């Protein structure tokens, strides 16, 4: 039994071991305390349940489909290598990679720029086009808006990259140091891709969770449909939300800004559902943070945040853009969560999606800090332009 449990809780990457001192464990402990406390239970339980059934379930399903298609159609990176040999397609390629949900495509472009394979305009294009993990959240909850943002990001990135290359040329701000790629490696179990408890959890849970989520989306009562006592689905959803947060908390120590707001490193030989689990748990944590911050603020201080934001409507596009300047996907997921809940308008979402660089900004700062800084400044210009254009043309 001991051996089984140690395999089940095996860390997802080398050097990641469970420690009772993990600061992240404060998060699930706090959620449990809020559920137990009588004054907050009525607000926290439905919030956690909605975060699992209406967000995490859809995000996991979307991620599973995305990772499956990625592995099936470009397993060996042939698409990448072909396009890198054609200079006139570099910015187009970078915009496409940035428009892909998640941060993987943007990180690929950053590393290829440092290696000398892509232009600086490609860096601007990918950082402008990328929406990071917030794209999965938006696609899962508001698919039409999600597709709109991906298409908009692609074209804004393409235009921005072309303009920057025309102004500066291919090698502008390219660092002299060579990039040495280091892949996080995990041992395969009996020749099979690595997967641990959180991967198994979502491998087994994604279909049932998606089924319950669809029932709720069609405005049906899952408790009545399955003959369960009233409130069972809500209680189970809240419990599963805390489970996903706990998996995230055990993944690694939170001792840096990046370890809190960025994705956890993934293994080179990870199972498809291992990546699904890590990204879904990360997104869920930030969605819960956004939802609870909103609901508890209203409950404790009797403040109507939506009304306050309505009074400051002209500042909301700027708010979205400024949050987008923060490295990491966490703050961007928070803005998207506020948009999904109707607290901030589409203009703020547009400004955030174009200005934010997701987790790609971390390797960019480490490998080419000057290029990262200038590219971020360049991506801010179209973010302000398109956010306020939408605000003036549509929302006023």
What's the structural blueprint in terms of helices and strands?
Blueprint: H1 2-8, H2 26-36, H3 38-73, H4 78-84, H5 90-99, H6 104-115, H7 120-129, H8 134-141, H9 143-168, H10 197-217, H11 222-225, H12 232-251, H13 257-261, H14 272-301, H15 305-311, H16 316-324, H17 330-340, H18 346-355, H19 361-367, H20 369-395
Helix pairs in contact: 2-3, 2-12, 3-8, 3-10, 3-12, 3-14, 5-6, 5-7, 5-9, 6-7, 6-19, 7-9, 7-20, 8-9, 8-17, 10-14, 12-14, 14-17, 16-18, 17-18, 18-20, 19-20
Describe the model:
- The protein is mainly alpha-helical and 396 residues long.
- It has a domain at 19-172 and 191-289.
- The chain contains 20 helices and no strands.
- The chain has helices at residues 2-8, 26-36, 38-73, 78-84, 90-99, 104-115, 120-129, 134-141, 143-168, 197-217, 222-225, 232-251, 257-261, 272-301, 305-311, 316-324, 330-340, 346-355, 361-367, 369-395.
- α17 runs antiparallel to α18.
- The chain is globular.
The fraction of residues assigned to DSSP E strands is under 5%
Give the N-to-C terminal Cα separation. 63 Å
**Integer-rounded radius of gyration:** 21 Å
Tally of individual helices: 20
Helix content bin: over 70%
Low-confidence parts, pLDDT < 50 over ≥5 residues?
1-20, 179-183
How confident overall, as mean pLDDT? 83
Strand runs, count? 0
Tell me the major beta sheet: none
Helix/strand-derived category reads mainly alpha
Provide the succession of SSEs: HHHHHHHHHHHHHHHHHHHH
Multimerization status: single chain
Structural shape = globular
